[in-house]
Amino acid sequence: xxxFNNPLAITTLVHVLIVLMFGVRIVMRRSAPGVAFxxxxxxxxxxxxxxxxxxxxGERRIGPERARRLDSLSAAARGSDGSIYGEMxxxxxxxxxxxxxxxxxxxxxxxxxxxSFVSRVGLRLHRKVVVVDNQVAWTGSMxxxxxxxxxxxxxxxxxxxxxxxxxxxxxxxATVLGDWMLETGTALGELAESAGxxxxxxRGSADIQVVPxxxxxxxxxxxxxxxxxxxxxxxxxxxxTPYLVPDDSMIRALRGGAGRGVKVxxxxxxxxxxxxxxxxxxxxxxxxxxxxxxxxxxxxxxLHTKPIVVDxxxxxxxxxxxxxxxLWMNYEIALFVYDPxxxxxLRDLQQSYLSDSRRLNPANGPHAPFVSDSxxxxxxx
Length: 381
What we know:
It is a single chain. The protein is of the alpha/beta class. The chain folds into two domains: 3-57; 68-99 and 112-378, Endonuclease Chain A (Endonuclease, Chain A), CATH 3.30.870.10. The chain is built from 14 helices and 16 strands. The longest helix has 22 residues, at 7-28.
């Protein structure tokens, strides 16, 4: 029988070619060694199905059309300079705005059988931004959902939004219009003109850096910003996050801070809406506790805010979680605020969370009983 008439031989040849082709692609993308090895092993040991899995979830592919729109958006950016619901709805007074004629809703990053082979499944637009008349902006962690009933079963969701005025409004508005352009293909200039987007005069004394992130946009820029915050701390670092699944570099930064005498405090919810994430998060607790990091579990609902405060003078506030999905798979936005007054207000907010939290006992690990409520006096809060 001829070699090319042998089905087994043909199948084996095709499998070898697939392994070689995907192997070169994985190596050239310079993934983390463990991740690269895992994918190579799966593609080799599970013929065809392993390759299909890699195509679906192995890369942060955003599709050629979205990549083209991102390029045009980046070029435009380089050429330019630049009760909470009640307050927000007051700003968005529908009776005073032409948008009262109707609300346009645009799905972000839709999925489908064909689209799955063009772009990666699971990419998510996670930003929360409201911009009104190019004068006022809101951003933070809050979804437009009733926190009392949203994903019921883990307690009430606890969130925070910040109201902004001044020149920071323009980049937030540009981010929203950029997201709309990426999904609809509408020309950015047309969107900016219809929305009245323009430079806004500075207001107040705080310096604020608006940092969007996401696949195809900033690479590991958000991770680098977070690592800079952690590594630049001299006295105190307080982090609040609903999902704590850090990578090795973040673990080293947190342990290193505690090791050099920084008071490192992490506040996470006692209950989260994902069992898998809950167990993944707790797998890091021992290493952090051993290094002297203090971990507190918030007891009055799903703590969903994400502020980070450094030495009472620098802070981060936005939609970014301290997990790899948020840093690598989601489109996020964060404010890096260089202002002691704002940091103090965030620190007061974190303190209110600490008053309703329990500290993990560092002597017995994350699965042991909690320290009694007397920790509040012992720890000096």
